[in-house]
Amino acid sequence: MIKDMTAGNPTKLILKFAVPLLIGNIFQQLYQISDIIIVGRLIGINALAAVGASAPIFFVVILVTLGFTGGLTVITAQRFGAKDAEGVRKSVTHSLTAALGLSLIMTIFLITFMRKLLQLMNVPAEIMEDAYNFMIVLSYSLIMIVGYNLLSGFIRALGDSKTPLYFLIFSTILNIILNFCLIYFLNFGVVGSAIGTAIAMTFSAVSCMIYMRKKYPLLRIRKQDWKLDRKYMMAHLNIAIPMAIQFSILSLGLMFVQSVCNSFGADTIAAFTAALRIEQLATQPMVALGIAMATYTAQNCGAGMIGRIRTGVQNSSLISLSFSIFIALLVRFVGEGMVGIFIEGENPIIIDTARQYLNISTLFYFFLGQIFIYRNTLQGMGDSIIPLIAGIMELVMRSFAAAYLAPKLGYVGICYAGPIAWIAASSVVFIGYIVTIRKLSHRRSKLAIKWKAQKIQPMPHKINLESTPAE
User: Fold this and answer.
1) CA atoms within 13 A on the CB side of 254
2) Digit-coded pLDDT (tens) for 310-338
3) What DSSP character marks residue 381?
């Protein structure tokens, strides 16, 4: 259901929007976790290490596509907040065109250079072929992954966070069933996991497209909406490209850390992989809150309601603080037990290595939570430069930890890479938010004076966005 987030209690709106996102994010993590569990328990430690060693490359791809599609749909949400139905439809067509171009370029690049990328990642020879085959299958399915991210982003831009959730839940269940069948019954090995994921993501993308066409008249495209407007396309790309770069910089830092970790051997790779999956699952409440802030901010920015943005950020920041404390305590109590789920039989070395990472990283979850709040708020306001600077800071600090601390402290140095990067990036986005919101407030005040002097109404006449006619 379409939801206008420019009216009503900010905290209730954000939390109500975030809950389906949280459930969806958890199921999306189950996508990856189910792969790890099924591969680790049904095939073995080397297969688990193969998936884990190559995962940062796929993580780069996912983050780049998320950043790019997220930047495109910022314009969609802003046009929705401004009650501009034509602008919403044009945003959809321009976003689809841009996303198709990105997916084709990235697919060709990955297929051409995958083996070289894995070699740069220091993937051990004994797991190289499994890692390569796993990634090639996922590379061919990239267009569907981009498609799902973009289509679900359109739906969320209109204030509906529930519909993408339903498709995601079903496709996650489908993914688990397919992975188990392809690996256990058909003996497809690691490739079976990739094929199952590709089929499930294809289902999600197609389902979103059909549902949008039937249920959202506002998103039904007219022939004239496909006419390319260079300025309008640049408005989208001016946000999408820096966000994609920002996310790619973040993922490059993770790749560098993983490449150093890969040099410690299969057991350490398996432990690090399991610990990261647990952390990614545990921090989803903070991720969901941040994504909710992006849509909330974009709609209110489009409507010129700067005060509502301030209120939403303050309340969300406090909520994120509470989440970070609770999650840190929870992971410390149950994290060690969860590591055993990923491997067959007792392996004290892997469990102890994973626990060591979790015990360090949980102390710094507060900074990670604040990154999600302020980064997404800045992106919702159309500011992609400050988040990009924060991403560069993350890359620098992660690389420092991997290159300087790991040789001196060993695996412990890798464990501190994330926390050091979180502290640096959270400082950048917080200061950037303060500067940006003050600039917007000042600009809004000047416009209000101008409107008053010329007796101009500040907001356009509202239209019924749900019943917009379509051809």
Assistant:
1) 23
2) 999 999 999 999 999 998 888 888 776 67
3) T
